[in-house]
């Protein structure tokens, strides 16, 4: 519904608490994944904190936009983009996650001098991160092709899980008032920062509830061609929406993401 909405640029300031501030991807083939996203989005890479294994930060025009890490060989976890939400106190936020029926799978722990993080899942099982910034503020630019533009939780029913995020991060809920549509926009101080889409039985059984990240592109149809040429796959063809032209694709390891041209 709202795939094309992006957060404002940071201008060297930390993201407000509750705002998606970073996206990260854990993969089996780090070098091949860098080649894919580097060719698709024009990203360059530099080493990042290594607490969870080999990890690089993707840069666009010298600005940090995303992270990619190497999964341990014995870990057969789903390969998926994970959004991180900003927090002033990751330990307190992690404790609130537990009290509200979520699970904290990793941390809280320090990522060198970059900041402090935890990786958690909500009551529906969708995985997300929590980031308390220090030296690393998170995604430094928005709106340009190659930057994350929107994060949407796809789940069976929006109602219960929306209350979870409202309590944990202080989000305000803004339901979409449309017949037959179960959609809630999460807001911070009146600004839309993420969405929750209740899709009922259309939720894939093999994935369950999950966050889906959209990336801005200059031309959605051309980007689809690049994805397939680079070894990725098209899942849902491009379509026009009120917030831009959107397509759903996967990278060569199967991580699902969206391409969106908002026309900004």
Automatic annotation (TrEMBL):
InterPro entries: Anthracycline_SecMetBiosynth, Glyas_Bleomycin-R_OHBP_Dase, Glyoxalase_6, VOC_core. Pfam families: Glyoxalase_6 (PF18029). Gene3D superfamilies: 2,3-Dihydroxybiphenyl 1,2-Dioxygenase, domain 1. Residues 19-133, 147-262 form the VOC domain. It comes from the Bacteria. This is VOC family protein.
């Amino acid at each position: 519904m709202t795939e094309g909405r992006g957060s404002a640029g940071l201008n060297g300031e930390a993201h407000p608490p509750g705002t998606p501030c970073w996206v990260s991807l854990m993969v089996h083939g780090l070098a091949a994944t860098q080649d894919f996203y580097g060719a698709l989005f024009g990203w360059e890479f530099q080493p990042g904190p290594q607490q969870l294994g080999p990890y690089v930060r993707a840069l666009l025009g010298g600005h940090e936009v995303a992270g990619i890490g190497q999964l341990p060989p014995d870990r057969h976890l789903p390969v998926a983009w994970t959004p991180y939400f900003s927090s002033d106190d990751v330990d307190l936020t992690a404790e609130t996650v537990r009290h509200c029926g979520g699970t904290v799978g990793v941390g809280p722990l320090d990522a060198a001098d970059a900041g402090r993080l935890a990786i958690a899942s909500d009551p529906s099982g969708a995985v997300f991160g929590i980031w308390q910034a220090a030296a690393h503020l998170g995604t430094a630019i928005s709106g340009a092709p190659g930057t994350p533009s929107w994060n949407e939780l796809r789940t069976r029913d929006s109602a219960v899980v929306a209350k979870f995020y409202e309590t944990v991060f202080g989000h305000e809920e803004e339901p979409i008032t449309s017949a037959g549509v179960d959609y809630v926009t999460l807001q911070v101080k009146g600004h839309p920062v993420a969405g929750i889409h209740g899709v009922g039985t259309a939720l894939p059984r093999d994935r369950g509830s999950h966050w889906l990240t959209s990336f801005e592109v200059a031309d959605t149809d051309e980007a689809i061609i690049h994805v397939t040429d680079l070894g990725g796959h098209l899942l849902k063809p491009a379509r026009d929406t009120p917030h831009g032209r959107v397509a759903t694709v996967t990278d060569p390891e199967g991580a699902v993401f969206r391409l969106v041209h908002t026309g900004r």
